[in-house]
């Protein structure tokens, strides 16, 4: 099977490296070369050529040698038309356009996997990336997510990921594709829960950043992160149905990614500065992120629209208040005050002795 | 109902403060005064008197005013004999002796709750603190655990806790006793899972400290913490049975306490120094903890005995290797190397479309 990676940013390039190592060691299963689609950018139209000659992506993953069997190309349609497995790793706002461009050229028997973190908001609904791919291309699509800072995986520091996949045969293929001694992959069938975790964690990280900016203690930060996880799973069930499984939060795509994001991600960092300096988010983005956009504030606004449209703000006090603090001038301190309003449930484990 | 708090350390005193506030506001339910048993110590035989006159515990919780209706006493048997609700907050190594002293004096209709974090190792078994209390006193005993650094709760910074309770009527009593606007309490029936989380997190924190000492990245630390959670729930099921519920890990007693302990607790801190300096743990304890003992190393040794006796080390690579690093000279780096050996499970959520 021939693998094509669509997207040559830091994560796409890192994953092409992982896949090329596995293509070489599983030559019974995979075609020997992994194609890496490089979107031509005005400032460097020959990035694909550079990657193929230098065996390195100097723009997005400098200093990391790539195996010889990574083949970069900017010819999207020829890359797509020969691929048996499509790996989507583009920024999530570009997915729709990309799908339009390739839809007529995808093999009918191809399968896909999305490594994009995000949800697409539309009216009072939110769609998963894998769902968009599935609908646009009419092929099966899985998803991979986890606590995966790209350059650490590229340097082969141990990390884990989770594959969400509804088809057991495909899960086996994806495990063989992605698993390395330094990159451990588990599978779950709860693909919707997996993608919700990857998208909503950034809102929780903003709330965690507020707590840091207020110099509140570890009890409060742990509570905010935990309640954020609870709202994440609750919202995933509202959006996608009751098959979303709490157990997903205990996988790498859940708690591990949440921990990394809430302790060292950029959303947390900018939110802390927001509290300490009172500077609005758009100015902080410009000053701290060199033109990159914060995922968390965007997601907070999209989620807010959805829960307001459905009359559900009371069930999501952390998400709703994070939005009000970001965009409506609510005091950062209020992030803690609303937590007592969290819906209460007595959790009943199935205990034989329970009275 | 008259409440007695057995143990006047920082956490016992903090909890007496919470309970006294609630005894005053729920005077239909609770006796107006909360008894606080103070173990007389040679260096300060009159600590109880000092607490009652100064309304402060200058030894263990200096600077925090206590309500007037906290009544300290060193007369154990009179405190115990009039209590309808016994709250255990002593160091876990003293529980056995305490139970022997009070067993004949406890009211037959009393109920109890344990706030002690720890498990008691005995042969190839481990017992919960609430189980020991239940067996010794022949009364019902619940447990409370969470991400609760004492002085932050005493300063009324928002935090959460979980009550493990098999009796729904008792759960309502305990929720009324403990819940404050700054202290949010959820209940679960999975008391065994709750107590396992509180005891085993300290082993995970040692492993997290090794990762910090090795300057590995956030991916690896998040993976170690997550795998530690998985081994915690797996061991809880081995020790106590299949009724132990993964959902418990998503409560304050689980993930929140785990996060706090693995990012800012003393076990993490000492383990990091162990890697950086190569100093043995007993010397680090003496130098860094002023005579206090590390819970993590003790628990690692106890757990190691149990899993060796049961032939289960392969199912607990993180716990087993943490012990070998602490006590058998294994290199700290090996904590990462064993993680690829983690037992693999494809997690199957109940998805209607699953193929």
Automatic annotation (TrEMBL), chains A, B:
- GO molecular-function terms, A-Z: glycerol-3-phosphate dehydrogenase (NAD+) activity; NAD binding; protein homodimerization activity
Residues binding substrate: 117, 266-267
Residue numbers binding NAD(+):
7-12, 94, 150, 266, 293, 295
Family annotation (PROSITE patterns) = NAD_G3PDH (PS00957)
Q: Does the keyword Hydrolase apply?
A: no
> Mind listing the UniProt keywords for this protein, alphabetically?
NAD, Oxidoreductase
Biological process per Gene Ontology, one example term: carbohydrate metabolic process
User: Where do the catalytic residues lie?
Assistant: 201 (proton acceptor)
Give the reactions, separated by semicolons, that this protein catalyses: sn-glycerol 3-phosphate + NAD(+) = dihydroxyacetone phosphate + NADH + H(+)
Q: Which residue range or ranges hold the Glycerol-3-phosphate dehydrogenase NAD-dependent C-terminal domain?
A: 190-336
Among Gene3D superfamilies, the record links this protein to: N-(1-d-carboxylethyl)-l-norvaline Dehydrogenase, domain 2 (1.10.1040.10), NAD(P)-binding Rossmann-like Domain (3.40.50.720)
Q: Per its UniProt record, what SUPFAM superfamilies does this chain match? A: 6-phosphogluconate dehydrogenase C-terminal domain-like, NAD(P)-binding Rossmann-fold domains
Q: Name one GO cellular component term.
A: cytosol
| EC number of the protein | 1.1.1.8
- What region holds the Glycerol-3-phosphate dehydrogenase NAD-dependent N-terminal domain? 3-169
Keyword Oxidoreductase annotated: yes
Protein family membership:
Belongs to the NAD-dependent glycerol-3-phosphate dehydrogenase family.
Protein's recorded name: Glycerol-3-phosphate dehydrogenase [NAD(+)]
């Amino acid at each position: 099977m021939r693998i094509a990676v669509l997207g040559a940013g830091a994560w796409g390039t890192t994953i092409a490296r992982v896949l090329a190592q596995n293509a070489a060691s599983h030559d019974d299963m995979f075609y020997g070369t992994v194609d890496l689609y490089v979107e031509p950018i005005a400032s460097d139209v020959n990035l694909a050529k550079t990657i193929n000659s230098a065996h390195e992506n100097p723009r997005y993953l400098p200093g990391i040698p790539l195996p010889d069997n990574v083949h970069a190309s900017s010819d999207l349609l020829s890359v797509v038309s020969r691929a048996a497995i499509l790996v989507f790793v583009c920024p999530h706002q570009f997915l729709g356009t990309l799908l339009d461009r390739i839809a007529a050229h995808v093999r009918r028997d191809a399968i896909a996997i999305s490594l994009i973190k995000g949800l697409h908001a539309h009216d009072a609904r939110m769609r998963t990336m894998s769902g968009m791919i599935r609908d646009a291309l009419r092929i099966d699509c899985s998803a991979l997510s986890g606590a995966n800072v790209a350059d650490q995986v590229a340097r082969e520091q141990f990390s884990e990921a989770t594959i969400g996949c509804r088809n057991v045969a495909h899960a086996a293929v994806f495990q063989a594709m992605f698993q390395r001694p330094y990159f451990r992959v588990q599978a779950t069938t709860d693909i919707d829960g997996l993608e919700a975790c990857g998208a909503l964690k950034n809102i929780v990280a903003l709330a965690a950043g507020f707590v840091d900016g207020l110099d509140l203690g570890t009890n409060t930060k742990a509570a905010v992160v935990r309640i954020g996880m609870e709202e994440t799973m609750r919202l995933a069930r509202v959006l996608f149905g009751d098959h979303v499984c709490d157990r997903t939060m205990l996988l790498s795509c859940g708690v591990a990614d949440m921990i990394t994001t809430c302790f060292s991600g950029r959303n947390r960092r900018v939110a802390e500065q927001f509290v300490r300096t009172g500077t609005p988010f758009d100015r902080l983005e410009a000053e701290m992120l060199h033109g990159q956009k914060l995922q968390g504030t965007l997601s907070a606004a999209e989620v807010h629209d959805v829960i307001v449209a459905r009359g559900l703000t009371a069930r999501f006090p952390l998400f709703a208040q994070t939005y009000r603090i970001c965009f409506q001038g609510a005091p950062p301190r209020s992030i803690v005050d609303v937590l007592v309003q969290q819906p209460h449930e007595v959790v009943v484990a199935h205990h034989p002795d329970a009275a």
